[in-house]
Amino acid sequence: MRYAMAIDTKKCVGCGDCVVACQTENNVPHGYCRDWIVESVDGTYPSLSLEFRSERCNHCDNSPCVRCCPTGASHKAEGGIVLVTHHKCIGCGACIQSCPYDARYPHPEGYVDKCTFCIHRVEKGQNPACVDVCPTHCLYFGDLDDPNSDVSLALKDRKWKVLAPEAGTKPQLYFLT
Amino acid sequence: MKTRRDFIKISAVGTGATVLGLSAFGAKKFKWFEPKIEGPVSDEDLTPYATYCEVCFWKCGAWAYVDKQGRIRKIVGNQNDPHCNGRLCPRGTGGVGMYYDEDRLKTPLIREKKADGSQEFREASWEEALDLVASKMKEVKEKYGPEAFGLFNHGNPGGHLEHLMRAYGSESNAEPAFANCRGPRSSAYFATFGAYIGSPECTDIRDTGCLVLIGSHLGENMHNSQVQEMSQAIDNGATIITVDPRFSTAAAHSTHWLPIKPATDIALLMAWIHVLIYENLYNKAFVDQYTFGLDHLKEHVKNMTPEWAYGITDIKPDVIRKTARAMAGAAPAVVIHPGRHVVWYGDDTQRERAMAILTALLGAWGKRGGLYIPEGVSVPKYPQPHYPEPEWTWKDINEGKYPLATMGITTELLKASVPRLNYKHQVKAWFVGGTNLPLAMPDKKLFKEAAEAVEFIAVMDTMPMEITGYADVILPEATYLERYDFIRSSPNRVPNIAVHVPAAEPKYDSKPGWWIAKQIGERLGLHDYFNYDDFSEVVDWQLKQLGTSLEEMKKIGVKEYPRKSGPLYLGDGEEFKFNTSTGKVELYSVDFADEGFEAMPVYKAHPEPPQNFYRLIYGRAPMHTFSRTSNNPNLWDLMSENAVWVNPKVADLWALKKDQEVWLKNQDGAVTSFPVKVRVTERIRWDSVYMVHGFGHSDKKLSRAYGRGASDEELITNIAVDPIMGGTGMRGNFITFLKDNPATEVKEDKA
Ligand code: SF4
Ligand code: SF4
Ligand code: SF4
């Protein structure tokens, strides 16, 4: 099993609903976020292109954050979901430093927090909250090993890219272009 | 509050420009950690309460999830609601913040004049506040007649006040949603098709082959089901044509973006019409059978060629032809989106007419993928006596101006409140419900003069806002999550209703709008109009007439009904009589001609910015609505202030840097109260600037929103009034930059 997410940049409008849904679903404190939006513009007026990307932890196959965690708090759960066990985290921040995607944040209570792919929902066969809320239906989630999962189907006929492939982390967030 | 990073990152060039790296946080705590904050709860442990979102006017059916401690944890869309298909927009998802906002109005407040002349609000009991409103209403009635008590209303809260005012004898009401927003399109589509476009608009985007957006920012205005359908249209490979001087989100997702010169849209529309007619691309069957005036129109647009329009709009003739042919190719599955906030240049009804005519030529009315025929549920009226007949109403306030207005005009109501302007019918007191007038109205000066002239202002709202600052009495209203309210029955493809059930008790000492209206009504001896103890009785009675009950609706939230008016689309060649003077779709408007207006739209040039000035274009961000959500903690997190978008060429000229704070000044010398950050971006033309509406709050009680960003409304002093329906065109203002605080400049001048 290999959980992954695909994000269709042709449809995302950068509304941030995924961010708010994550905030309420996971009780993320105000002022912090587990997912966020990047807007990137290319060209000069009027020959322009614009891309919105809803970004979050890439649940990297080869995850430096897990390797560098001195206490084992950062670990990989079933299906490759990268998690932090809060009570084992000493807040040293090594994982924050090691993540090339800026995906982790220091929770004000002293531990490191990040996207969990809403594992509490996924375990019950539901989608992550951001996927279910997105009004443009541009997020696809599922098991890459299952050719019929939403994410596999989304990746099948489209071009895609991953972010910072040069970092060698093997990210599991695919951006459809 | 310090944020770890921006919730929205803007990267200047291409992909991969994300800001990377971050330093570890503060002092390290070398101890095993026991988390106190609760994590997620599973949906099974939460109780869902049926509601519909009231953060904006789309009214999406939703469930408020409440945990065992009675706290509202999250709000999600109702799967069975065609307004949202189970998904809310960011504002709807963030609706919890509206409930939890600790800046909410908590208790009734009464303005008190002190001996030294200063004024302040003091807390009051409901008894006292309601008595005061009722006594003022009696006083106005005796002195001037009930008609002199005006009402500015919006949404559900406004509805309860409207009922109260009508029972009391006044129909002097107006809502910004008409003359400051969508009025021109109502009048234009009604004149053309004899039907209203409705809300949600009856646009069949999900099945369209071609979607045309003219200054309509789908995706930035999160009109939920339409944004969803635009996404479906993208998946289906529909052609999307976006006309906008700004590279909007919709433009970025379009097949064709036409970067039009501002204020020239009518020329483009007329050229499209020209191409359809003179290239014989229009839908002959539809036009022959259903329309009136093709010959007039043909003659009228004879010289309005793409070459003619090019000189006006900056859009190349071949692009005009290509896009017109794309529409014709997809016809009748074409949506010419009528837009929402359509008051731009004062000839807006005519621009909307051009859009309606284009729709008719493509045969896209009543067709799959065009405009569908909407149907709503008519909710039976709870038994009550007839309303008394007022001696004059909002119609008379207009004094014969704007004959085709279908609702009260806010600016006219303001003018009638200013004795100096000598209106025949004078307004002496106001009730304001659910609208933050100072930020919703153009022409601040007029607003201030009117607010100062009236004898009494009562405001009902959930949040302290600029308008509450003008109140004599402030009535704190419960949020939609804490009250029963009207049944929602807006027309849609399938007729349906939705209900509100309180998910929590009203916080603090706030009260539902219906309760406030009833209490005042009772004090005025209007019990027969408020013959219930709790509004749930009204709702239940109405639901029973509709063959359901509150009990059932609590479980389902939204209920659909079979259509009675016939199919969603017109059959091929089916007989149909339109509700216009000719019974046909009027390409040539007989009503407009009769009233002395142009029967077919004409392009007229509008003033252009003087040197060193730039056209002020304003719009929406997906995470906020009007000025009402700027303080919502969840949404503030996403966007806490606006910025002024400046083209890099302009930035160079003025030596403006990214994030530099500037004050904006308009052609009439109006200056923003607060500075606004510069956003240097290619997404805007060099003759214009852009900012998101609804920021620059001046009420200190909004602890988050106060002083954040600038208010576009302060810069809108030049208003082009639409002679047809009184719309207030607000895009004719030009701004320049002040790099130093104008307040200090003044001080230095004096020194
Ligand atoms: S909710 Fe969907 S459309 Fe909105 S920003 Fe997130 S991914 Fe994009
Ligand atoms: S994105 Fe960052 S936090 Fe997430 S798995 Fe990769 S390295 Fe770790
Ligand atoms: S569009 Fe958004 S804010 Fe408006 S009613 Fe729907 S969910 Fe609420």
Structure summary:
The complex is a heterodimer of chains A (177) and B (751). Chain A is α+β, with helices and mostly antiparallel strands and 177 residues long.
Structure description:
- The complex is a heterodimer of chains A (177) and B (751).
- Chain A is of the alpha+beta class and 177 residues long.
- Chain A has a single domain (3-176), classed as Alpha-Beta Plaits.
- Chain A has helices at 17-26, 64-68, 94-98, 119-122, 129-133, 150-156; strands at residues 3-8, 36-44, 47-55, 74-76, 82-84, 105-106, 112-113, 139-143, 160-161, 173-176.
- In chain A, a hairpin with a 5-residue loop joins strand 4 (74-76) and strand 5.
- The two termini of chain A are 25 Å apart.
- With 751 residues, chain B is α/β, with parallel strands linked by helices.
- Among the domains of chain B are: 203-372, Dimethylsulfoxide Reductase, domain 2 (3-Layer(aba) Sandwich), CATH 3.40.228.10; 614-750, Barwin-like endoglucanases, CATH 2.40.40.20.
- Chain B is globular.
- The two termini of chain B are 37 Å apart.
- Classes of the chains: A alpha+beta (177), B alpha/beta (751).
- At the A-B interface, helix 1, strand 2, strand 3, helix 3 and strand 6 of A face strand 1, strand 4, helix 6 and helix 22 of B.
- Strand 2 (36-44) of chain A pairs parallel with strand 1 (8-11) of chain B.
- The complex binds iron/sulfur cluster (3 copies).
- One iron/sulfur cluster is lined by residues 53, 55-56, 58-60, 84, 88-89, 91-92, 222, 224, 625 of chain B.
